[in-house]
Write a structure and sequence with these properties.
Length: 197
């Protein structure tokens, strides 16, 4: 239940609930007003502020405030927010926190030049964010075909941005899981027979 039938009186009552889980649920709910979100954006509990940042109807002005929150977990929610503007993601890309950078890497509004910087980031979670970003372009993804973590190479097998010729080397990958996935992908295209004919 999304709580779409909540009355204004119920919302007002829950806003002051001592249990932070109630406020978290309310903060995530897309039916609440901007006034509710504004109130929760300064809640003493960081999880409530994070809920506001995750709300799909969170106004840009509030996201800008929450992007400077003292808690990195709140800032990471802003980084993952699909309505976050490019300028905010560019600012968050200067962070050192892994969760924030992972959100920036996964966000479809992040400029390619930043994604290209993040593909060489030492932390695997950040690089994975780029791989999972549906807007990451071929040029951005190519270096990740050599990623040291086999799961990343495995994820790239089915990536629609990469060309067939990019994926052929994965058939000889050191990891058997990657090789199997690559052969299976090419078999699905009926390309194996002509490749090895």
């Amino acid at each position: 239940d999304t709580g779409s039938d909540l009355s204004a009186a119920s919302i007002k009552l829950m806003m002051n609930d001592a249990d932070h889980w109630v406020r978290i649920w309310l903060g995530r709910n897309p039916i609440v007003s901007r006034n509710v979100l504004r109130t929760f954006s300064v809640d003493p509990c960081y999880e409530v502020r994070r809920a506001v940042a995750r709300n799909p109807r969170c106004p840009i002005a509030l996201l800008e405030v929450l992007a400077k929150d003292e808690n990195a977990w709140v800032r990471s929610a802003v980084a993952y927010q699909q309505s976050a503007p490019k300028r905010l993601l560019v600012a968050l890309a200067r962070e050192l926190d892994i969760d924030v950078l992972s959100g920036v890497a996964a966000n479809v509004h992040t400029p390619q030049r930043i994604l290209q910087e993040l593909v060489v980031y030492p932390e695997a979670d950040v690089r994975r964010g780029v791989i999972l970003n549906p807007k990451a372009k071929r040029k951005t993804l190519l270096p990740l075909l050599q990623d040291p973590y086999y799961l990343h190479r495995l994820l790239l097998v089915g990536n629609p941005m990469l060309k067939e010729r990019d994926k052929w080397p994965l058939c000889e990958d050191p990891d058997f899981n990657v090789r199997f996935a690559a052969f299976k992908w090419f078999a699905g295209l009926n390309k194996l027979a002509e490749r090895f004919a």
